[in-house]
Amino acid sequence: MKKLMTGNEAFAYGAYLYGVRVAAAYPGTPSSEILANYANYPNVFAEWAPNEKVSLDVAIGAAYAGKRAMCAMKHVGMNVAADSLFYAVYTGLKAGLVIVCADDPNMHSSQNEQDNRNYAKFAKCPMIEPADSEEARQFMGIALDMSEQFDTPVIVRSVTRLSHSSTPVEYTDEEPPAPPEEPPAYERDPLKFVMVPANARRRHPVVEERLQQLAEYAETTPINYIEPGSSKLGIVSAGVNYHFAKEVFPDATFLKLGMVYPLPKKLIREFANQVEKIVVVEELDPFLEEHLKLMGLEVQGKDIFPILGEFSPSLIRSCAVKAGLIEAPPAPPELKSDLDRPIRPPMLCPGCGHRALFYVLREAGVLVTGDIGCYTLAFAPPLSAMHTTGCMGASIGVAHGIDRAGVKDDVVAVLGDSTFLHSGVHPVIDVLYNQGSTTTIISDNNATAMTGFQEHPGTGKTIQGQPAKIVDPEKLVRGIGYEKVDICDPYDIDKMEEILQDHTRSDEPSVIIARHPCVLHTREKHPPPEVDPETCINCGICLDIGCSPLVQEEDHVRIDTLLCNGCGLCVKVCPQEAIIEK
Ligand SMILES: Cc1ncc(C[n+]2csc(CCOP(=O)(O)OP(=O)(O)O)c2C)c(N)n1
To answer: What mean pLDDT is predicted for residues 489-517?
Structure first.
């Protein structure tokens, strides 16, 4: 039977269907739902790891032990996991290992739009790229078989459009066939699995030979194929862009590449011989285009289509018309453009603890090196209270660097609880060890809120909702050696201000845990306060906390009671006492 599934649901289903029994991930849009869905299948082990590198090591360990394994991550997660990817390519495994990695063209929810196909070439690791949910299911099986046949991890690439769109998938309710028998005990094989230089030197030629063999495999695998059409135009494409390009060039000859690394040179030449003109339709980098050009083929690609952002059939069509590849289609019916829609910038939720913290930080005038999570929204006006943000875990090192550069401002690093456990622990060690004085503020809402409330080592629950040991950030930093540690609910503004002043004036490295549970998670709500229009002098100070229920009327501020969470922050900041708690 057929079932409508998102790409992420299909990756999870394919993993289960083809015998993955251990999987680990750290959440990140657009990949988070892969592990969340996989964890619902029976007789599997699934875990949220504190970061992507750990998740990959866990999956590698399972594959060393002879169990098919998966890990999943967003594209920037691969930067964190890369060290492990590179060694696993050298060691190989005992059972299939698939890394599902989801790129985010157009940066719908990311700090960059890196093209992770480059990782395949860089790490010398095969990569396949499904075009829809059914292929996402099937390619999981193909990747696991390929992994075992060639003794290598295999990367399965997704993009936001595939991960989050639904298309039909061949589905059965029956239990999948049992995975291959497990080895009775761990087979020790240090020559293969201990990557000291002497062993690694022996493994490198294996990696190079394997790549040759994979290139041969790419010639005959059914996931790479030529779709005959007009000889006037040949389109090379992979992934979701194959479907987009089919809409725009229905008559062209297509080279559909399911395997994007290594590439099938003979098949490419066979295709090139059948067509007069070759055009590569690919998002982001000219990855396929450069490979084809290196083969000496005359190819068009990035001279027609942008190197930035996400493609769509309409974008491909308009570029193709401009390049004279197709006639301009009849004008489509008038649609309202994006520009006609009211612009609604993302905002912290009413009642969010991050808002109270950043209000205090802004009022104190400190320099804030930020991190990635819901709280990053504090950079935007009217809060305007975050001054750097790079990648997860960067806040603390950057603050320490600014401090060591001799800057006189008070500098604090702010990061969330999930981010702290992902990549904040090593930088707090660095500050302590190198006698820095940086104040690190963990804005602890007891959730990985930004990506959908996934559990993490601090929440006390596993992915299955089972109770787990709580990794307490306070105990952790005290255990490392921090002596100046305070915990405060940021809604206690006076106390928060006092602690902040005490920490920033001190030369000691320190940690403040600003703890207020995420209100979307706890669903806690209080009666909304009321504005007394007679007392309100319309000074706008309350509006500067950037809380959406506060609405500017002609001569006073009004509170939208439907949106208000009743947190009372506006009551505290109003100098006129015109906002009254009920
Ligand atoms: C390397 C990497 N992995 C994953 C993500 C996706 N991501 C961004 S922030 C974040 C965690 C947010 O949780 P937390 O730090 O607790 O802040 P909150 O959103 O709860 O305020 C995640 C998983 C990312 N941007 N980079």
So the answer is: 98
Q: Give the Cα separation of 136 and 3 in Å (integer).
A: 13
- Structure confidence by residue, pLDDT tens digits, 437-446: 999 999 999 9
Residues 6+ apart with CB under 8 A from 135: 223, 258
Ligand 1 centroid to 26 CA: how many Å?
9
State the distance from the centre of ligand 1 to the C-alpha of 318, rounded, in angstroms: 36
CATH no. of 2-218: 3.40.50.970
Task: Tell me the average pLDDT across 492-520.
Answer: 97
* For residue 562, pLDDT beyond 90: yes
Domain 530-580 fold: Alpha-Beta Plaits (3.30.70)
Distance CA 498, CA 519 (A): 25
Q: Residue 152: which residues within 8 A CB-CB, separation 6 or more?
A: 89, 92, 93, 125, 126, 146, 207, 210, 214
pLDDT at 202: 97
- Per the structure block, which two tokens stand in for 275? 């067509």
Any idea which fold 353-522 has? Rossmann fold (3.40.50)
Could you tell me the residue ranges of all domains in the chain?
A: 2-218, 224-322, 353-522, 530-580
Residue bearing the CA closest to ligand 1, atom 12: 373
Q: How far is the CA of 530 from the centre of ligand 1 (A)?
A: 35
Residue owning the nearest CA to atom 9 of ligand 1: 373
* Ligand 1 pocket member 417 (CB < 6 A): yes
**Which amino acid belongs to residue 24?**
A
- Mean pLDDT value across residues 538-561: 95
* Separation of CA 51 and ligand 1 centre (Å): 10
Does residue 441 line the site of ligand 1, with CB under 6 A? Answer: no
Helix (H, G, I), strand (E, B) or coil at 558: strand
> Ligand 1 pocket, 76 CB below 6 A?
yes
Pocket lining: 372 vs ligand 1, CB cutoff 6 Å: yes
Quote the ligand 1 centre to 449 CA distance (angstroms).
8
- Was domain 224-322 assigned CATH 3.40.1170.60? no
Prediction pTM value: 0.96
Q: Please name the residue whose Cα sits nearest to atom 21 of ligand 1.
A: 374
